[in-house]
Amino acid sequence: MNTDPRPLYARAAEQIAALIRTVRPEQLAGPTPCSEFDVRTLLSHMAGGTRRIAVVGAGGDGLAVRPFVDGVPDDGWAAAYDEVRAEVERSWADDTRLDALVHVPWGEAPGRIALSGYVMEAVTHTWDLSEALGRPLGLDPELAEFALAIAHRVLPDEQRGDDVPFDSAAPAPEGADAYERLAAWLGRRSLSRA
After folding, report:
1. DSSP SS3 for 100
2. Backbone dihedral region for residue 134 (phi beyond 0: left; psi -120 to 50: alpha; all else: beta)
3. I need a surface site. Which of 7, 20, 53, 69 has the fewest CB within 10 A?
4. Among 99, 5, 89, 100, residue whose Cα is nearest residue 60
5. How far apart are alpha carbons 94 and 89 in whole angstroms?
6. Angstrom distances, CA of residue 171 to CA of 81, 98, 155, 160, 175
């Protein structure tokens, strides 16, 4: 894979930022398709995971970064996310980072592969948040198609087990869009279909 995932990651991050700006305080305790996360915890994970990506891009140990943030006020999630996504942009700006080996939770990989995996994670959590919020915005289908291709490559259903944070693949609903197909491949269910 020789794709430069930075433009796709930037688009995914902008989409997340727009979605986070729609969150109302009364939605923070609501459920998400990630059964272990409410909306607040999902936002914490999205911001913390993004900080981890920034550290990886800067050549640091992403595994040393807790993939959650604490202490964000209810009305501060948009600012918290904007801060960490700016860190990602700066830390991945140098082209040499794309071919440098980096350490990520699933092992060691060239930066472009690692960042592609984080595009998949970001797009997946975008769907989670969108579902939890009642789909307030249209989502970029090209991002979901890219994430789904990555998911098929790195998460074959038969290799999932206790160490993989995704359930077994489920059938996608008839007429499913790319986000729904991605969610199904990763074992997620829509809150409206659960």
Report:
1. coil
2. left
3. 7
4. 100
5. 10
6. 32, 34, 15, 16, 11
> Which pLDDT score, from 0 to 100, does residue 160 have?
46
Spatial neighbors of 156 by CB under 8 A, at least 6 apart, are none
Phi then psi for residue 44, to 5 deg, are -60, -40
What pTM value is reported for the model? 0.90
Q: Determine the Cα–Cα distance for residues 147 and 130; give it in Å rounded to an integer.
A: 16
Q: Strand pairing of 101-104 and 107-110? A: antiparallel
Q: Say which residue the tokens 């769907």 belong to.
A: 127
| Distance from C-alpha of 185 to C-alpha of 76, rounded to nearest angstrom | 32
Largest CA distance in the chain: 44
Cα–Cα dist 143/145, whole Å: 5
Q: What residues of the chain score a pLDDT lower than 70?
A: 1, 155-167, 191-194
pLDDT at residue 194, rounded to an integer: 46
Residue appearing with tokens 């989502």: 139
What is the b/e burial string over 10-24, where b = at least 16 CB atoms within 10 angstroms of the residue's CB? ebbbebbeebbeebe
